[in-house]
Amino acid sequence: MTFSKSPITDRSDIDLTDPQYYLSRELTWLEFNSRVLHEAMDERTPLLERLKFMGIFSSNLDEFFMVRIASIAQQIEAKVSQTTPDGRTPTEQLAVASQRVQQLVTQQHHHFETVLRPAMIQQGIYLLDYFDLNQEQCNYLQSYFEEQIFPVLTPLAVDPGHPFPYISNLSLNLAVAIVHPDTGEELFARVKVPQVLPRFIRLPTELQAIDRSHPLQANPERAQIWTGISLEQLIAHNLESLFPGMNIQDCFTFRVTRNADISVAEDEADDLLQAIEHGLRKRRKGGSTVRIEVDSVMPSHIRRMLQEELEVTAQDIYEVDGMLGLGDLMSFLALPIPELKDPPWNAIVPTVLRRLKSTDDSSNFFNLIAQKDLFFHHPYQSFPDTVERFITCAANDSKVLAIKMTLYRTTGDSHILKSLIKAAENGKQVSVLIELKARFDEQNNINLARKLEQAGVHVVYGLVGLKTHTKVVLVVRREDDKIRRYVHIGTGNYNAKTSKLYTDVGLFSCRPELGADLTDLFNYLTGYSQQKSYRKLLVSPVNTRESFDRLIDREIEHVRSGKTGRIVIKMNALVDPKMIAHLYRASQAGVSIDLIVRGMCCLRPGVPGVSENIRVISIIGRFLEHSRIYYFQNGGDAKVFIGSADWMTRNLDRRVEVITPIEDPEISSDLQEILGIMLSDNRQAWDMQSNGSYSQRRPRSGMAEQSTQQILMEMAAN
């Protein structure tokens, strides 16, 4: 990485706590999701991948409402008036977030209807409206409805004898306007679109033909691949079957989002597992309504009824001109059309591991780590052949005495789970901390905990008041009458599925100080240890903040002594106001700072006198950038770290996180090269402006595209 000496700016008169120097957390998250939406709108992205990003945008927004907007709504209800670092009250936060959401949703649906649906047709993918069907197709769908859908439906009337029904979280519904044929009375009913049925119904191959005279003219050079309609349209055109003898006036789709955060009074809970299970039952029932999405043509009187019955304000209702619930578009990625997808990527088995005789050659695997620290980068290098293999070897190796591990998010069928059970069956001491409070993975983690306990694994559920977010493994092995400890410290979850989609880095080492530090950490996690210092590791909430403060101060001192100061940090989010203020002070001192922040960034780069030496980019691509890498130039003796912590207050003060120094010069150089590639990206990188907006980089005339993820795939393959 190259750098230049930056001028020193004495601006001690500037109040770095002034709200003008901070961006709204909610708005910066929405700008991140806007960049996700852009991938769905970018013609350079293959069509089915564009549908995938359209779905990811919607799913992200659902979670944003279930957690962030729900939290703000609770603050408003509690009459909280305290402002955030950007100077907004909860009411003001909700207002600006709602306005930006409506803009983005309008943009999303307009693009889907006017660009993506026609593009799908050109590729032989017909997502039809019911009126586009011919008689033969209608007849088939009529039979399909009667046999496959009608028995599942439950129409719910709303009248004095039938109270307004409970509308479950993220459910898609039909609001049906009915008139009684005898009395002329206007009635209302709700029909839930069953989530247990496919959202999109495909017509049989022999019925897929579209009339070539129809405005939806197929590409004559493209065979029809998929033709069908949405489930809600099929239900809507068969409502007479649900309300025989009544006059169906019209129906309109709507969708409800509820507060899905789980609040557990941990200090009052006798059993954390039972408390989390109780919270999950409350989530399944759903909390207060935080959003209603409605068809834009829904009449005002039906909209008012929904607003009153679901107890929301007009600000909580979002008009949608088109199909609701676009998260389901991700299902089209399963279509067997490889030319409309990203080229497949098969993670590479690292060269250093190919020489091992077999996957069971545990001694040689441990010998490799004993000789030299190993570094792996996923998904470019295979997670099963590195991390999973390490744990499998530990489970089967006769010299291994104990395995200790943290699990934040994983899958019930993972090889890691099977290996831990096998290790316990082999008589090894196996201890696993499973974080039950991992949001939206609580039930899965409860199931994993019980399965491991039944196999004899010592399971710890987490710490009261702290989430354990760190990703570490400690293996204790007896070698020649001595004990040697092997460690894995990573940035990503021990999850084989997400390892194919998320970029993460991990270190294998048997450095004694790292092993001793992890031993102390696990004693803290499983016992009553009050460990306050660590030899090498940065551990939240013990010393991470203070350690980063010292590293930043050291760069400031290098500049003041006439040298250069340089910081490059890659993380998922930068929100903590104290760390932002410290970076501002470093910029004022003349330290050159590059931040690679995928998502939320509340820092304003390029503000004269405050952050003119700070640049921020975000990289969005086929893989979710998830790794955290921290580089400090340190006067030429570079200090490089990797770990699990973003610079959010929760990661620094309210979670257990681990960050490890990289002491092997080759690995340090590799990580610096990765950062350099990202800073040079002109395809997937977005430059952040001082006002919080982003502009996507484009290659200059005559320059080739430099895509970080493409370059790293090519490097791994070679």
Structural notes for this entry:
The radius of gyration is 28 Å and the shape is globular. The longest helix has 33 residues, at 90-122. 36% of the residues lie in helices and 21% in strands. It is of the alpha/beta class. The strands form four sheets. Strands 14, 18, 19, 20, 21, 23, 24, 25, 26 and 27 form a ten-stranded mixed β-sheet that branches. Mean pLDDT is 90; it is low at 2-6 and 264-270. It has 19 helices and 27 strands. It folds into three domains: 47-340, polyphosphate kinase like (2-Layer Sandwich); 351-532, Endonuclease, Chain A; 539-717, Endonuclease, Chain A (2-Layer Sandwich).
Short description:
With 718 residues, the chain is α/β, with parallel strands linked by helices. The protein is built from 19 helices and 27 strands. It has 3 domains: 294 residues, Polyphosphate kinase middle domain (polyphosphate kinase like), CATH 3.30.1840; 182 residues, Endonuclease, Chain A; 179 residues, Endonuclease, Chain A (2-Layer Sandwich), CATH 3.30.870.
